[in-house]
What does this fold into?
Amino acid sequence: MNQDWKIRVQPAGRTPFLFKATFVTRSTDRDERALDSRYLYGDGDLAVLLEDLGARASEICFLIETLRRSQSAEIDVDVTEEAMEVLAHGVRGRGVGRA
It folds into this structure.
């Protein structure tokens, strides 16, 4: 597993999406430009993305609650090599857009 990632979730700033999920390396805290940000329609899409990336349900719920109180939140994820490969190729399920 790749344990050097966190996801920064912010308002999308573009319709019809609600969230923008940006991949950030924990060690540098800089936006990772090798992977596109994902634009998500709402809580359900965000939860599915985070679960696919290895986040636990309790962590996802906490992140969503945090987003209801503030403009952004971050969550650590342990991404499998398979998930990294899928993300690098831009393959996502329905309801999730790419930048």
User: Anything to note?
Assistant: The first helix runs from residue 43 to 52. The longest strand covers residues 2-11.
